[in-house]
Amino acid sequence: MIKSLTVADFIERTKENLKIQTIAGHSGLERTIAIPDINRPGLALAGYLDFFAFDRVQVMGLTEVNYMRQLDEATLSERLQRVFKYEVPCFIITRGLTPPEGFVEQANRASVPVLRSLLTTTKVVSKIIIFLDNQFSPETSLHGVLVDVYGVGVMIMGRAGVGKSECALELIERGHRLVADDVVFIRRRGDRFLYGEGSALLRHHMEIRGLGIFDVKNIFGVGAVRNTKRVGLIVELEDWDSSKEYDRIGISEDSYTILEVKLPKITVPVRPGRNMAIIIEVAALNHRLKEMGLDSEKLLTERLTQVLTSPDKDQDDFEP
Question: Coiled-coil ranges per the record (predicted)?
Fold first, then answer.
């Protein structure tokens, strides 16, 4: 998770999306943005600074610009001097509006960057919030393979050499899509959602022991890959242990926590003859059913309980 970014970095990463240009305060482009939120400085321009959220990106639209234009030169200068005493990261003016000359002069004097966007205020605010939320969101990396299986982001984990990449390769051959192999970068958005992607250098590549590294997109086509995917299910592959009791009914629910987000997890034992790709496909479909409110295991348990506790139960209830 980044702690801050400079205004120059912000401009570089958003100039196409926000259609912005720098119109003042060029000497202050190394100022830092450390808060993933914005502020509308209308009250500050009116002279009320008790709760001025100065440490955020300041967005000014038609209301703020027209208000400054209606003030006489002396009043505007006095209020702007008070505003620019604070360590403001930058101002962004929307709709391609031109601020009063006094505002530009004060910004240049205080070395506070003033940016101008051609977009409406609503669009600028929403795009900045989304961008900053992504930039400042917690992130980590995990060893595994992330595959989009029937719309479910399945994170395949396990010890080195257990067959994660081989399983993912068969899933790709069956029409599913690779997101990342070996190292998966996970980023949390909001409080509940995790999104995974691969590194920019190795994106869309896989490593198979005995085969080496190859480009999935070039071999299987662009439809076999995607850049990012929400992680919904953890599948851990482990070597078959005959002394271990594996879940055969599916009633017990295991979980795996990443960045304080709990995800459902299933453990699948690996041994010769088991088709792991089909098992993961069924697990993904079953996960989708649960998200739709249909839990097969619980429904079966309720039916069995009803039959066993029914006073007129009969042996025929257990026969086909």
Answer: none
- Give the bridge partners for 91, in sequence order: 58, 114
Please report whether residue 306 resides in a domain.
no
Q: Measure the CA–CA gap between 140 and 96, rounded to whole angstroms.
A: 38
Per-residue pLDDT band for 200 (boundaries 50, 70, 90) equals confident
Judgement on whether residues 24 and 100 belong to the same structural domain of the protein: yes
The average pLDDT across 71-98 equals 95
Residue 157 and residue 251 share a domain: yes
pLDDT score at 113: 97
Distance CA 197, CA 141 (A): 10
* Ramachandran class of 10: left when φ > 0, alpha when ψ lies in -120 to 50, beta otherwise: alpha
Boundary-marking domain end, from 97, 118, 136: 136
Which amino acids are annotated catalytic? 143, 164, 182, 248
Residues 144, 132 share a domain: no
Q: Which of 117, 136, 155 is the last residue of a domain?
A: 136
Q: Are residues 103 and 212 in the same domain?
A: no
Structural domain harbouring 296: 139-301
Give residues with Cβ within 8 angstroms of 245, minimum separation 6. none
pLDDT (0 to 100) of residue 108: 96
Q: Could you give the CA distance from residue 81 to residue 59 in angstroms, rounded to a whole number?
A: 18
Binding residues are 158-165, 207
Question: What's the pLDDT score for residue 148?
Answer: 97
Query: Does one domain contain both 159 and 105?
Result: no
Q: Give me the pLDDT at residue 312, please.
A: 64
206's enclosing H/E stretch is: strand 205-208
The C-alpha angle with vertex 259 and arms to 255 and 260, in degrees rounded to 5, equals 60
Angle 61-66-70 from CA coordinates, rounded to 5°: 155
Binding-site residue positions for Mg(2+): 165, 207
The tally of domains found in the chain comes to 2
